[in-house]
Amino acid sequence: MENIIIKPIGIVNSPYKGAKDIPIQGIFKSKTEANVELFDKYKKGLTDLDGFSHAILIYYFNKSDKEKIIGKPFLENKEHGVFAIRSPNRPNNLGISIVKISRVVNNKLYFTQVDIFDKTPLIDIKPYVKYFDSRDNVKSGWIDKHFINGVPKQTILK
Amino acid sequence: MENIIIKPIGIVNSPYKGAKDIPIQGIFKSKTEANVELFDKYKKGLTDLDGFSHAILIYYFNKSDKEKIIGKPFLENKEHGVFAIRSPNRPNNLGISIVKISRVVNNKLYFTQVDIFDKTPLIDIKPYVKYFDSRDNVKSGWIDKHFINGVPKQTILK
Questions:
Q1: CA dist list (Å): A136 to A56, A121, B13, B105, B136
Q2: In chain B, fewer beta carbons within 10 Å around the N or the C end?
């Protein structure tokens, strides 16, 4: 099957410069704000996105060029298949985050619930649609044991 | 910013061969089953995914090579910015679907809630994690007016 060429559509400006401060998922550190800055030709694509409360960002883990088929997640030492974890060391090194939209100004989308490094190349933005993207009765596999009533145990919130 | 090379990790086997029968989102036609068939080298990456009820599939809209910055969604005739719709005619032509996992057998992940065409190249699989991916108090912009109490109006369910 043929390779696919992807062109970044913009860049993430984030206060997280390195692994030390970044949360495992942005929803656990809700107040920090970041933005994606689109290249000018894509600016008009943001039209009407400000009517949505959340967006799905797809981006390139440019600090990870490793591809591990079995890997260790942040949450525990046990290894799992890469498609059962959210590690950046994965085939194609694409990341996805649900973020909360603050506002759209010109070619910038400001958001909170950030878990993306500064200067990450952005690949796509999609509106988060509750009818398509939210699910009830979700089982979250090996991850469930790290949460009690939706709240992460111990050090996840560091 | 540099281009990124993506290698498909497998292929989608789906009963939907053309635009006629496919639902706008798989959750609205829940019983149809499809599978993704991973290339052998990625098979072990599925380990432990069967503990999750849902997965996020990222794939390449290989029938769409158009890139429209303003586009018309399936649901209405009004145009919106491409980042406020889920159209396949978008920069980088990547699609994302939340699907319900039926079972994992060897190099195949069987699932329902299908809205993907047959022979679509697969780019990534991520576990759907309720703590990361579900949100309350979601506003879905121009899409909300097409639903009443979570149920789509009129012909969306065709």
A1: 19, 32, 26, 25, 11
A2: C
